[in-house]
Design brief:
By secondary structure, the protein is an alpha+beta fold. It starts with 8 loop residues before the first strand and ends with a strand. It contains 6 helices and 11 strands. The strands form 3 sheets. The chain has a 5-stranded antiparallel sheet with strand order 3-2-1-4-5.
């Protein structure tokens, strides 16, 4: 098994989980190789003996670093779950994203055939929990940055969006919403807008009206 390749999908088992340490020492399944799962890269707390899926994030240092929050991992899981409709050419996984402390991930899907990609992917999404404890949220991809950003802000009430200004060169966007619904766009601790920014690739600023 190659451990010198970032993005490699692995099954690990926790062998040390000292609460005063910044990460878990893990054994990679099927090998005698050790790796570190940093707590900030984990999808929740683990105990010794727990098994988990992750992707290699870095190979620098004495042990490879693995992550359950990297784009490599989320995309790998999404493509694994949606493999039947991807193989049919009906769905593409366009982008994925989460941020530290978020308990959810956003997965942007599109359809080359004009089908509803969210409807096609939903039946397979129930298996996401077999790979991650994060909550998956599907986002409808659009080639229009304005529409993509708007869709990525779900479950905020999209009907309340009064305007979006996008700076494509700077990858920044301003989304204007009434002050009364601002908290629903921000999400808890601002995580909804932060994850929306990660999945779209734009720094999103909310402006109240």
């Amino acid at each position: 098994m190659a451990f010198d390749k970032v993005g490699h999908f692995v099954l690990g088992q926790v062998v040390k989980a000292n609460p005063d340490k910044p990460g878990y020492l893990t054994l990679i399944g099927g090998t005698d190789r050790m790796a570190v799962l940093p707590r900030v890269c984990a999808d929740g707390p683990y105990r010794v003996g727990d098994r988990f899926y992750a992707c290699i994030k870095s190979v620098e240092g004495p042990y490879p670093i693995v992550s359950q929050r990297s784009g490599h991992f989320i995309r790998r899981v999404a493509e694994l779950l949606f493999a039947p409709v991807i193989a049919e050419g009906r769905v593409d996984v366009k982008a994925v994203g989460t941020v530290q402390h978020a308990e959810f991930v956003k997965i942007a899907v599109g359809s080359p055939t004009g089908d509803d990609p969210i409807r096609l992917c939903l039946p397979y999404l129930r298996e996401f929990g077999s790979y991650s404890r994060l909550r998956p949220c599907l986002v409808l991809y659009s080639a229009s940055p304005e529409e993509f950003i708007k869709q990525a802000l779900l479950p905020a009430p999209l009907g309340e969006v009064k305007g979006i200004t996008v700076d494509r060169r700077a990858h920044e966007a301003e989304v204007r919403v009434p002050a009364a619904v601002m908290p629903r766009f921000l999400g808890k601790a601002g995580l909804n807008v932060a994850v929306a920014g990660r999945v779209t690739g734009f720094s999103i600023r909310l402006a109240s009206l």
